[in-house]
UniProtKB/TrEMBL annotation:
GO MF entry, a single one: glycine N-acyltransferase activity
CDD domains cross-referenced by the UniProt entry: NAT_SF
Start and end residues of each N-acetyltransferase domain: 139-269
The name this protein goes by in its record: Glycine N-acyltransferase-like protein
EC number(s) given by UniProt: 2.3.1.-
Family: Belongs to the glycine N-acyltransferase family.
Alphabetic keyword roster: Acyltransferase, Transferase
Pfam families: FR47, Gly_acyl_tr_N
Transferase listed as a keyword: yes
InterPro entries: Acyl_CoA_acyltransferase (IPR016181), GCN5-like_dom (IPR013653), Glycine_N-acyltransferase (IPR010313), Glycine_N-acyltransferase_N (IPR015938), GNAT_dom (IPR000182)
Annotated Gene Ontology cellular component terms: mitochondrion
EC class (word): transferase
């Protein structure tokens, strides 16, 4: 019941709360790996932190995500010794506007930190304007299964490790995915997945199949599917990825130009 209340409250605080909202949304609907949720106080919270328990192989690769209404509350929850284990690897996702504070906390803790990614957060409000998927491509669209984990892992920018393999397998097992299958081999030639935060990601087309509109078709198909099931439809695009930014923009995704999401690695693996 409390998580349902959190979900309702966070929906009123978009776009800054979008990622944490996505985690809570999934937790209220999908029996997947557990996520621990911490707030500074209840029910009138100022900060909410979602983190995976580190219990098995691959858990260290999962993100910890924070939404906060003010910087002081964010700093305070990072200082709680029973929440963050500063001796282990941590990937923290939050708003870029808190970069200076995050770096200061790392310095105080004498923990090495690296800003690994800064992204536009692209949201789709109205999927009815998405272009139709060509029938020839639509007939080839399917979902990924666990046998495809290695392929996705080897092509993901941050993948190709055992930890990322475990994380991707979990995503394929529990969350929506979409792929285009080769007509002859019936193996994926393009795909997009959904993160535990509901964000679409890992969009990829094999080199030899690019230029055929497969990414456009996958994003359109996946967006309609997510929207029809009540999911928030959004994604993160790295600032330097102009091709993907243009793809999502042309499909009707929009952003708050004042907001950027950022990820920070502590104690890099």
């Amino acid at each position: 019941m409390q998580l349902k209340t959190v979900e309702t409250q966070l929906k009123e605080l978009f776009p800054h709360s979008q990622q944490v909202y996505g985690y809570i949304f999934q937790m209220n609907r999908v029996m997947a790996d557990p996520i621990q949720v911490f707030v500074d106080r209840w029910p009138e919270f100022n900060v909410i932190l979602c983190k995976p328990p580190y219990e098995k192989e691959g858990d260290l690769f999962k993100d910890t995500c924070v939404f906060t209404k003010d910087e002081a509350s964010f700093r305070n929850i990072l200082g709680e010794n029973n929440i963050i284990d500063w001796t282990k690897f941590l990937c923290l996702g939050t708003s870029l506007c808190y970069e200076e504070m995050v770096m200061a906390v790392a310095s105080e803790r004498k923990v090495p930190v690296n800003k690994v990614s800064v992204c536009h957060m692209m949201m789709l409000q109205d999927p009815s304007r998405l272009p139709p998927v060509e029938s020839a491509i639509e007939s080839m669209i399917s979902s990924l299964d666990e046998s495809h984990t290695d392929l996705v892992n080897k092509t993901w920018k941050f993948g190709n490790t055992e930890n990322s393999f475990q994380m991707i397998r979990n995503m394929i097992r529990h969350y929506p995915s979409c792929c285009v299958l080769d007509a002859e081999s019936q193996q994926p030639i393009a795909w997009v997945l959904t993160y535990p935060s509901c964000a679409m990601g890992m969009l990829y087309t094999l080199q030899e199949h690019r230029g055929q509109g497969l990414a456009k078709a996958l994003v359109s198909s996946m967006s309609r599917r997510l929207y029809s099931q009540g999911f928030p439809v959004y994604c993160f695009v790295e600032e330097e990825n102009i091709l993907s930014y243009n793809l999502y923009t042309n499909l009707g995704f929009t952003e708050d130009p004042q907001y950027r999401a950022a990820w920070f690695d502590f104690n890099s693996l």
